[in-house]
Amino acid sequence: MPMKPDSKIFDRIRVKPDPERLRRQQLPTCEWAGCENAATHKAPKGRGAEGLFHNFCIDHVREYNKTYNYFAGMKEEAVAAYHKDSLTGHRPTWTMGVNARSWVKSNAGDENAPDPSVVLRRARARRTPNPEPPRRKLKSLEVKSLEVLSLTETATGPEIKSRFKELVKRHHPDANGGDRSSEDLLQEIIRAYNHLKSVGLC
C-alpha cells in the first residue's frame, strides 16, 4: 500500500539526482570570453607554464586546439634540440666514463665502495667469445667422405673447400703432367666433396 503524503511518518520525497547535472554544477565556468557553459575540458597553457591548464567547454577547447602550437616563437635549432632531448625524457646524459672521477670522489671515504677500474676489469674477464654452435652428429658416409679428403670430423666448411682444391690440383692429369694413375682417386675425391656439399658441410 503506497504511503500518503499526510502520513505521520512521511518525511520528504527523495529524488535521485542527475549525476551529469551534479557534475556540471561542480565544474568551473568556461574561461572563453563571454561563455557561460561548464568547463568540461582542460587545455595546456603552453610553454613555460607546464602543468597549468585552461578550463574550456567542448566547443571552445576545440577552437583553442586548432591554433595551439607549443613551439610557437621558437627557433628551428631550439625545436630540434627539444626533440633530441625528448629521446632521453629531457634528463641529462653524459658520455661513458665522463663522471668516473666524480664517482670516485663521492665514494672516496667509503672503504667498501668498489674501485671502478676493478669492476670493469672483472666484467671484461667474465666476457667470453661466443661459443661455436654445436655441430651436428655426422653420419658414416659423411665421416668416410671427410677421410677421403684426409680431414677430421671437426673440419670446417672453408677447410673442406681448401683441401678439395689442393687435392684436385695434385691429382688432376692437367696439373700432374698427364699422369692418369690417380684418376680413380680424383673421382673418389670429387664424389666425397660433392656429398659433403650436398649435406651442407661446405
Describe the structure.
With 202 residues, this protein is mainly alpha-helical. Among the domains are: 19-67, no CATH class; 140-198, DnaJ domain (Helix Hairpins), CATH 1.10.287.110. 43% of the residues lie in helices and 4% in strands. The protein contains eight helices and two strands; from the N terminus they run H-E-E-H-H-H-H-H-H-H. The chain has helices at residues 19-26, 58-67, 76-86, 100-106, 116-126, 140-148, 157-171, 183-198, and strands at residues 41-44, 53-56. A two-stranded antiparallel sheet has the order 1-2. It is elongated and about 130 Å long. The termini are far apart. The model has no long low-confidence stretch (mean pLDDT 79).
